Amino acid sequence: MTAANRTGSDSRCCTESGAPYVWIHAEDRGHPQMMEFEAWLSNLTDFSRAHEEGEIDELFEAASEGKLEDSGDNHTKIKPITHKPEIFELRLKSGAKRPYTYLRFYHSEPAVRPKNLIALHRHIKSSDDAQTEGLVQAISIHELGESINWT
Question: How far apart are CA 73 and CA 114, in angstroms?
């Protein structure tokens, strides 16, 4: 499940020539991490929630336009997370000061869907275990989509 020497720049999200890409949301909204994510958003003040939703929308829009760039450091907005299956991670850091909230969004880019980005899972990265759980969920949804040829 390694990224096998790939970079975020290998993603469609970093390739304007094929854009725009259309997001297909395949997330399981009933998954505990997804529910935790939504609860976190709903517990923010109205202003903070609108700000965070705007940041998320801006990230997804930049990805769909192929305008992301892998900066190669801990601040990058995109990085490969696994190679087989190929899953990328979109990343946001929420909050003006510590402790930050780290938001993670996993997606795949199936060859049979060259104009799509498939949103698989989102979660708050609170620990390495949470990241592993989120990745296992993303892989599960990816494998299900693959088994039905993404129809």
Answer: 28
CA atoms of 92 and 87, how far apart (whole Å): 17
Residues in Cβ contact with 126 at an 8 Å cutoff, skipping those fewer than 6 apart: 102
- Looking up tokens 């980005």, which residue turns up? 117
Residue 3 lies in a domain: no
> What distance in Å separates the CA atoms of residue 46 and residue 24, rounded to the nearest whole number?
27
Predicted confidence pLDDT, tens digits, the chain (151 residues): 445 567 888 999 999 999 999 999 999 999 999 999 999 999 999 999 999 999 999 999 999 999 999 998 888 999 999 988 999 999 999 987 778 999 999 999 999 999 999 999 999 998 888 899 999 999 999 999 999 988 8
Look at the chain and report how many structural domains it folds into. Answer: 1
Inside any domain, residue 1: no
* Structural domain for 40, as ranges: 8-147
**Does the pTM of the predicted model rise above 0.85?**
yes
Q: Is 127 contained in some domain?
A: yes
